[in-house]
Write a structure and sequence with these properties.
This protein is α/β, with parallel strands linked by helices and 357 residues long. The protein is built from eleven helices and nine strands.
Length: 357
């Protein structure tokens, strides 16, 4: 007769394959969460940024360089966990427009990211922390970028979140005009295209998607109640361009954040950064948002939640022209996702194609 220790060891050996198969379904993997110390540090930053309002309109605004009546600026917010592979292309994009933009970089603290000396990214790295997919850390990172830009320059008027895999599709002049030129006085034929207030935030806000319920219940069934009923929950892209009004709204929020910072139980349906911003802005100011993004992404052959990644053989003038085209009256301004080795062919197209509108 087998001894008890032998039976127990044999049973444990047999149970290992079952445990590996069913374990992740019974006990979901724990993803990176936000510590109390980091949360308090962020709250202090957000409070400082929330009161860093632009000077009253009755006074003549003065820029950091001492220029009176300066123009509004675009704050470009780079969210990255790798090196800034396309820094030379962005350098070319920004060249000659130093008074019309600012750059801020949140680089994952666990990743070695070069501070590219001599280019527009030099010295533009903000205090950063770890980030991870399927966790609220990417929301926190984007909020820290918004707060840093709000504090840094009162002339920052649009806040464009992009990733290290994003590239510009037009010249800086075209991008600036797109964001800051008021729409024409609507006629009967154009009224539908100019239904939003100016200035407006460019953020994708979707409802009625097939995966909406799974994403809503990713933290547990009805755990989002009462703050966020299912019919108010939205999804969209994590890349957007927000007005200053909406950037302030995001960093002031506490109510919805308490729900979105909760850990997910179903990580297959958990994309917090794609849910928080569309839901918050849809609930607070839906008519102040276009409900579409200015960043083109190809999801036709996505894998593991990642979109199609363009490789050097695909880079061509035709690709740039195709990526610009939208199904509405606007042009896409940015595109992702490009592999790092696309830099050389993109630089070859920079002056001849990309920055020629």
């Amino acid at each position: 007769m087998f001894s008890t220790p032998f039976v127990l060891s044999f049973a444990l050996l047999l149970s290992l394959p079952i445990l590996f198969h069913f374990g992740p379904r019974i006990i979901p993997p724990m993803h990176l969460q936000i510590s109390l110390a980091d949360e308090l540090d962020d709250l202090a930053l957000f409070r400082r940024a929330a009161i860093a309002l632009p000077r009253p309109r009755s006074r003549r605004p003065v820029s950091r360089l001492g220029t009176t009546n300066p123009k509004p600026k675009i704050a470009f917010l780079f969210l990255t966990n790798t090196d800034l592979h396309f820094a030379p292309l962005w350098d070319r994009f920004f060249s000659g427009h130093e008074r019309l933009y600012n750059v801020y970089v949140h680089a994952d603290s666990a990743t070695q990211v070069a501070d590219h000396g001599g280019d527009v990214f030099s010295g533009r790295f903000i205090k950063a922390r770890r980030t991870e997919r399927a966790s609220p850390t990417l929301i926190s990172a984007a909020r820290r970028l918004l707060a840093a830009a709000l504090l840094d320059d009162p002339l920052n008027s649009y806040f464009a979140v992009v990733s290290q895999h994003c590239i510009p599709l037009h010249s800086f002049q075209f991008t600036y005009r797109t964001l800051f030129t008021p729409p024409p006085i609507p006629t009967e034929s154009t009224r539908k295209l100019t239904q939003f207030r100016y200035p407006t935030s460019y953020i994708e806000i979707l409802s009625g998607e097939p995966q909406l319920l799974d994403r809503y219940n990713a933290r547990g069934e009805n755990i989002m109640l009462p703050e966020i009923p299912f019919d108010r929950f939205r999804i969209g892209s994590q890349f957007f361009a927000l007005t200053r009004k909406h950037a302030l709204l995001v960093i002031k929020d506490r109510r919805l954040w308490r729900k979105f910072r909760l850990p997910c139980l179903n990580t297959d349906s958990c994309y917090p950064e794609e849910h928080y911003f569309p839901t918050l802005l849809s609930m607070q100011d839906p008519n102040g948002c276009t409900h579409y993004t200015l960043t083109r992404v190809n999801w036709t052959d996505s894998t593991g939640g990642h979109p199609h990644t363009y490789c050097p053989p695909e880079v061509s003038p035709n690709l740039i022209h195709e990526l610009r085209v939208s199904n509405s009256s606007y042009s896409y301004l940015f595109a992702r996702k490009f592999s790092p080795d696309c830099l050389d062919p993109l630089m070859d197209l920079a002056d001849k194609v990309i920055f020629r509108d």
